[in-house]
């Protein structure tokens, strides 16, 4: 046996997103931390100009199989 080990990682992110759909920028941000198993928006605040500050909490698999 050998190879890399997969590990479960807790991810907390704070993002400032432009007006528009949320899913694509959230998925891109989470992908930098592994393969998300689940995620949730835990806080959101409207900013001037239509931007949004968002806090995400996620669980992701990290590492190569």
Question: What is the gist of this entry?
Answer:
The protein is mainly β. The chain contains 1 helix and 3 strands. The protein has one domain.
Helix and strand arrangement:
Layout: E1 7-17, H1 23-31, E2 35-46, E3 52-62
Antiparallel strand pairs: 1-3, 2-3
What does this structure look like?
The chain is mainly β and 65 residues long. The protein has one domain. Helices cover 14% and strands 52% of the residues. It contains one helix and three strands. It has one helix at 23-31, and strands at 7-17, 35-46, 52-62. A three-stranded antiparallel sheet has the order 1-3-2, with helices on one face. The radius of gyration is 14 Å and the shape is elongated.
What attributes does this structure have?
mainly beta, 1 helix, 14% helix
- Poorly predicted ranges (pLDDT <50, ≥5 residues)? none
What gap, in angstroms, lies between the N and C termini? 12 Å
The Rg value, from CA coordinates, equals: 14 Å
Helix coverage percent: 10-25%
Spatially, the strands of the biggest sheet line up as 1-3-2
Element pattern in H and E:
EHEE
The largest sheet is: 3 strands, antiparallel
Strand content: over 45%
Number of strands: 3
Shape: elongated
Count of alpha/pi helices: 1
Mean pLDDT, nearest integer? 92
Domain tally: 1
* Estimated structural class: mainly beta
């Amino acid at each position: 046996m050998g190879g890399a080990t997969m590990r479960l990682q807790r991810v907390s992110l704070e993002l400032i997103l432009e007006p528009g759909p949320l899913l694509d920028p959230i998925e891109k941000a989470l992908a930098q931390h592994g393969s998300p198993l689940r995620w949730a928006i835990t806080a959101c605040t409207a900013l001037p100009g239509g931007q949004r500050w968002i806090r995400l909490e996620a669980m992701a698999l990290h590492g190569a199989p």
